[in-house]
């Protein structure tokens, strides 16, 4: 299974089960241990790899424990402190990690509530854990740029030097992105003034500044939408090019060929459809190899197939109108549409989708 698919599978589990989790211990069993084992690849039942309740004695504090220590060659590499799902992860929750970071050989520490994982190191001062993480992972909102860096923490690819070298850039890029996000939603006076001074020739009075506050927000929103649309068009342009095998034969006439190409060009796959595809793929991977799950978009629906075979439909996503539907197939391949309010509602049909896949096995 590919690394991202492992993350997606655990994310699906978090979505489905988090409401039933009431304690820190349940959080560790349901989400954190699978993250350590399935995603990072460490054997949680081998104390030489993963030590639960790792004892760290500091000064007069004796017998205090860190939830998990990941080991390599007898040395502590990663310390993990867990909180209950839903709890905020602030510096107060990281107090034990701060205390024990400098008395072990660990260069990486993780603070998590099972959904959000914050990764720390010692960039600011040697052997002293930084107050700000160099990497954050939210399983319900995975940043694609964090995935390659996360793989460096896996057992098969663990490279502490590479991680530390990249941590500085990751830390500041992450913080800059947060500043940009904040400015996009609520630009401050200095930010607004930068743009106003470049496009407005008059004196920037308070009234002008207020006008440019709204203009700046609107321009930023439109710019981001344009960038997203351009990326979607670019991503789909290759898929929209007809292959020789898909073109009609010459006997059908040139006009038929043009019509088919025009029809293909009208198909635009949305991010919401792709998210739905990944949700379905993650759910049914327990009964079939995820590589066999293929998406095929059309003008009227977004199809998800087994083995890229139209005779093996798993489901259809009808997202082209305000009311969304998921189409589920029975054993006779009859489609029944079920209304859904959001992509997350697809999780409610997990058993039905697995049953549909079973028809073709």
From TrEMBL:
InterPro entries to which the protein is assigned, alphabetical: HSDR_N, UCP035009_HsdR_All3000-type
Pfam families for this protein: HSDR_N_2
Protein name: Type I restriction enzyme HsdR N-terminal domain-containing protein
Residue stretches making up the Type I restriction enzyme R protein N-terminal domain: 24-121
């Amino acid at each position: 299974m590919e690394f991202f698919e492992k993350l997606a599978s655990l994310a699906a589990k978090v979505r489905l089960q988090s409401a039933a989790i009431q304690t820190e211990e349940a959080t560790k069993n349901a989400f954190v241990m699978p993250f350590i084992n399935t995603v990072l690849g460490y054997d949680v039942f081998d104390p030489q790899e993963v030590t639960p309740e790792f004892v760290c004695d500091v000064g007069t504090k004796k017998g205090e424990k860190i939830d998990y220590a990941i080991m390599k060659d007898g040395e502590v590499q990663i310390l993990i402190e867990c909180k209950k799902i839903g709890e905020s992860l602030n510096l107060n929750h990281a107090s034990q990690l701060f205390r024990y970071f400098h008395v072990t050989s660990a260069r990486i520490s993780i603070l998590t509530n099972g959904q959000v994982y914050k990764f720390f190191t010692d960039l600011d001062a040697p052997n002293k854990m930084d107050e700000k993480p160099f990497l954050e992972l939210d399983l319900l909102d995975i940043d694609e740029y964090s995935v390659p860096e996360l793989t460096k923490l896996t057992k098969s690819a663990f490279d502490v030097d590479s991680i530390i070298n990249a941590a500085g850039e990751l830390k500041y890029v992450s913080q800059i992105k947060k500043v940009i996000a904040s400015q996009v939603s609520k630009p401050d006076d200095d930010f607004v003034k930068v743009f106003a001074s470049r496009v407005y020739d008059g004196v920037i009075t308070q009234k002008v500044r207020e006008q440019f506050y709204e203009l700046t927000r609107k321009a930023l929103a439109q710019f981001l939408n344009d960038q997203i649309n351009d990326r979607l068009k670019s991503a789909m342009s290759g898929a929209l090019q007809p292959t020789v095998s898909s073109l009609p034969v010459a006997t059908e006439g040139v006009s038929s060929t043009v019509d088919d190409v025009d029809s293909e060009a009208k198909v635009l796959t949305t991010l919401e459809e792709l998210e739905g595809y990944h949700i379905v793929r993650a759910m049914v991977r327990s009964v079939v190899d995820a590589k066999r799950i293929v998406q095929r978009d059309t003008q009227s629906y977004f199809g998800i197939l087994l083995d890229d075979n139209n005779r093996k439909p798993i489901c259809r996503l009808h997202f082209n109108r305000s009311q969304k539907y998921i189409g589920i197939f029975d054993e006779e391949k009859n489609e029944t549409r079920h209304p859904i309010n959001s992509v997350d509602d697809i999780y409610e049909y997990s058993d039905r989708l697995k049953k549909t896949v079973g028809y073709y096995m």
